[in-house]
Amino acid sequence: GAAEGPLAGIDFGAKDVFDIAGHKSGCGNPDWLASHAPAEATAPAIARLLDAGADLAGKTQTDELTYSLMGENAHYGTPLNVNAPGRIPGGSSSGSAAAVAGELVDFAVGTDCGGSVRLPASFCGLYGFCPSHGRITLEGCMPLAPGFDTFGWFARDPAMLARVGEVLLEETPSAMRPKQLLMADDAFAAAGTEVIAALKGALDSVRSFVGAEQSAVIAGDGLEACFATFHTLQGTEIWANHHDWIERTRPSFGPGIRERFEWTSTVGESDVAEAKKGREMFSERVHNMLSDGSVLCLPTAPGIAPERGASGDVLDYFRARAMALLCSAGLAGLPQIS
Length: 338
Description:
The chain is an alpha/beta fold. Helices cover 42% and strands 12% of the residues. The protein has helices spanning 30-35, 44-51, 94-101, 118-124, 158-168, 185-191, 193-198, 200-210, 223-249, 257-264, 269-289, 312-332; strands spanning 11-15, 55-60, 107-112, 127-130, 150-155, 181-184, 213-216, 295-297, 336-337. The strands form 2 sheets. A 6-stranded mixed β-sheet has the order 2-1-3-5-4-9, with helices on both faces. A 3-stranded parallel β-sheet has the order 7-6-8. The chain is globular.
């Protein structure tokens, strides 16, 4: 990084999907690594951090082509979650979260499509932030589903999270107190009583800061319907982005990843058309809820990180429940902090 700047003296890790001049991106898959040339230029968002004085310590592990939330990679293993020993770190920005939690770097950047920063932040006991869709450029980054993909970053404390944000967002945000706190009753109900009990202390702190509180329902048709909408739209974008490379290269994908990519090829046009209508209605609903300066509060995950080596059925069940909570920010293109 530059010798001077607002981030001078701190270092970071970058998810192995961002271009770094002279280096290859593996994107979590050996066949991707072998079939792509070194980058000619560094991704603009990474360059912005370097120009601000931060030093890039290294690239961090990711789930294959970022298409997972769990952090287990069949080719490269599972990064360690030092704050929950024996449990997965979450993904797909698994290495970024693990490196920050393990104090290997001061902060790390990743990408978030369906929760790939927010969920590992929750699992690893970190602050994780993804901005509004399109707010920070993803030029020079491998896309998954561009209609949902966002930049994101991790830190161990809110001061570092904000310090990095001032550079990436190119502005110093003014202090603001939300008008009221909207408690997403349907999301808390979906997460369950154990999660509600575990979050009580944090919720009480937020309540005391904001003051005014009101109950809210995010999804008029249910969170599962929101996830189905997200799942369909994300899937068709993923297939459009990667089917040429998959059919040409015939890559080796690990369990779960392989089946998900196969499924993306089956999404029908009529399903996509219906899902687009559903997204538009949902987005309008949530934006109207927040138009007066309110902040929406909901659980990031339906529980703590699952154990390493859990069965595919256990992880699939957890993933579906988590996605029902995580998909709301993506559908509405809104920022979220975990």
